[in-house]
Design goal:
With 304 residues, the chain is of the alpha/beta class. It is 45% helix and 13% strand. Helix 1 (35-44) runs antiparallel to helix 3, helix 8 (219-232) crosses helix 9 (242-256) and helix 8 packs across helix 10 (263-282). The radius of gyration is 22 Å and the shape is globular.
């Protein structure tokens, strides 16, 4: 983590680091006062990888908790800007993270309502002059007291100078200024595209004090996601199929590069394997429960 001092704020950039689990918890962690953090982290234990995100969530919780203690102690506290920028390739957990953070802020009563609104380009960009600004203002109005999450935010810049998306960006910046502490805006998208997106309005980047990058999953983590996805559908992956599937995952990562959709690709692999298993089992007359659950190596030798 590094801090960049700017007038009136600290810009915190959470940089990728080696994925390590959180340290063994001390006694304070189990105190009833931290029930919200305990519940959120239990939920996050179900997520594969994302160690940096888990650290960020704990830091956000700690900041909110101590700020409340400062207020109770009579220390003057200004409202904090908590707008966030998430960057990462597809399927790396950006939307999941936004939902978890919104849930935590709701339970901590940082936001008046704590509701979560997920939006895309069509929800902001209109069809004629003036329409976009009004649509964007209306969307922010609905999000007041909660979290507004815009995935693939760089799509607002799609279409060039004559596109109304630029108007949506300018209106968002104005709304963030007018409603500094009334809602939280989380913008997400691919790293390269988001870097360009931030250049489109001079006041855009400075309004996001928290930036978090979601790294691609490793092959081992993707295999764990595959197992989790299979179990959710009541399938088991044959132990002999593990090296075949891991090789397939590594091959797909190499072949698709930055287009590889991480968790989404893995879930698709499991769905295709289930269809291959169905064809394989259809040729048999007897089916044990184990047969019906087991995905074998041949089921992952997917046709192109």
């Amino acid at each position: 983590m590094k801090q960049i001092n700017q007038p009136g704020r600290i810009h915190v950039v959470f940089q990728p680091k080696e994925k390590t689990p959180l340290a063994a918890e001390p006694e304070w962690y189990r105190h009833p006062a931290h029930e919200v953090l305990l519940d959120i982290e239990k939920e996050m234990e179900q997520l594969i990888g994302l160690a940096d995100l888990k650290i960020l969530v704990r830091e956000l919780y700690a900041t909110a908790y101590i700020n409340q203690k400062r207020i109770e102690a009579g220390i003057q506290a200004k409202g904090q800007m908590l707008h966030m920028l998430f960057t990462g390739n597809p399927g790396t957990g950006k939307t999941t993270a936004a939902r978890i953070i919104a849930s935590m802020f709701k339970r901590l009563r940082i936001l008046e309502k704590g509701h979560f609104i997920e939006a895309e380009r069509a929800d902001l960009v209109g069809e004629y002059i003036g329409h976009t600004a009004q649509k964007t203002r209306d969307l922010v109005k609905k999000a007041l007291g909660g979290v507004l999450f815009i995935d693939e935010a760089y799509s607002l810049a799609r279409g060039g100078e004559k596109d109304f998306g630029k108007e949506a960006i300018d209106t968002l910046v104005k709304q963030m200024e007018d409603h500094q502490n009334d809602f939280i805006l989380i913008l997400a998208g691919y790293p390269r595209e988001m870097a360009h997106f931030l250049t489109l309005n001079p006041g855009l980047q400075s309004r996001f004090p928290i930036t978090h990058h979601f790294a691609d999953y490793t092959v081992d983590e993707l295999y764990q996601i595959a197992e989790q996805s299979a179990h959710e559908k009541w399938y088991d992956i044959d132990s002999a199929a593990k090296p075949i599937l891991m090789e397939k995952i590594a091959e797909e990562k190499r072949k698709q590069g930055f287009r590889f959709a991480n968790g989404r690709n893995i879930r698709t692999m499991i769905e295709k394997a289930a269809r291959k298993q169905a064809i394989r089992l259809m040729k048999q007359t007897m089916h044990s429960k184990k047969d019906l659950r087991l995905l074998k190596g041949e089921d992952f030798e997917l046709s192109k």
